[in-house]
Design brief:
about 300 residues, 5 helices, two-stranded parallel ribbon
């Protein structure tokens, strides 16, 4: 992590090269460090921070056995065609604040890609069509500005979708997301259309939601297909009795109470015997007879 404390070239050649770095993410934040990668054949995962052009990255990364590449805070990178040089082995790609990258087309030529994590604040929604492949398992979209999921191209083969948006996102339809099993929403979403979409898409068995309160689920019909449930609650812990009524099927539930909540009564969840219930934070827990309760 602290190459800057030593002469970069000599430190890479004389010290780092003596270690097996296969399971370590090596941080690259200068052109000297990028050039020194030629001395470190065991490195497979890189976190590249700072302003590197696409041409510089093509030269510095050429021929490497890269398994995972993380790019952060790079306003100089304009395109991703250089990734073709590691197409056969690249499994994970993370782009965080790389505002000049608008075209994701080169990702379609990466057959080993399993995980993509994108900052969507500048990327056109239509560009996501390039991530639709049989290989991709997990897609995370950060700083998404879409107001409805139907504005994004559906990913028929995707199994896990995580969204962190800058505005509330309506899950108006999951049509076309035919193999999606896990949906994590780290942004506000209207409850009624979401539950309706889940009822029409029973393959989605693992759901994570951020809600002010479970009282938003009043009078909603059950979604029996959900097997595991994560609820981050922002305002209060009212309405816990709605969990077994709206989600009768989970064997695993995680509750994240608001930070100012000091007491959580799990009695309403006793209608879900043998369910594993995790409560985060430091609130006192009471009730929960018959449940497997943990922290």
């Amino acid at each position: 992590m602290d190459w800057d404390r030593y002469p970069v070239e000599e430190y890479a050649r004389q010290v780092l090269s003596t270690f097996d770095l296969t399971d370590h993410v090596l941080r690259i934040d200068s052109r000297e460090k990028l050039a020194a990668l030629r001395h470190l054949p065991s490195v497979k995962d890189l976190a590249i921070n700072g302003c590197f052009t696409s041409a510089e990255l093509r030269t510095g990364l050429r021929g490497g056995p890269w398994n995972e590449l993380i790019f952060r805070q790079n306003p100089c990178m304009t395109e991703l065609s250089f990734l073709a040089d590691c197409a056969e082995q690249l499994k994970g790609l993370f782009l965080g604040f790389c505002p000049a990258v608008r075209d994701l087309g080169p990702l379609a030529a990466l057959p080993a890609l399993r995980l993509v994590d994108l900052d969507m604040s500048r990327v056109p929604y239509a560009a996501l069509a390039a991530t639709a492949s049989k290989a991709l398992d997990s897609l995370k979209l950060n700083r998404l500005t879409a107001e409805r999921l139907s504005q994004l191209p559906a990913q028929r083969e995707l199994r896990s979708l995580t969204i962190n948006g800058t505005v509330p996102l309506e899950i108006d339809s999951l049509e076309g997301w035919t193999r999606l099993q896990k949906l994590e929403l780290e942004t506000r979403t209207p409850v009624r259309p979401l539950l309706a979409a889940l009822r029409r898409s029973p393959q989605v068995a693992h759901v994570a939601l951020s809600l002010p309160s479970l009282t938003e689920c009043a009078d909603e019909r059950p979604v029996p297909s959900v097997e595991s449930l994560v609820l981050a609650l922002g305002t209060d812990m009212l309405g816990l009795d709605r969990i077994p009524r709206v989600f009768p099927g989970p064997r695993w539930v995680m509750l994240a109470p608001p930070t100012d909540v000091v007491h959580v009564d799990l009695t309403p969840l006793q209608a879900m015997p043998r369910c594993r219930v995790i409560v985060t934070g430091r609130a006192e827990i009471t009730g929960g007879e018959g449940l497997d309760v943990g922290r």
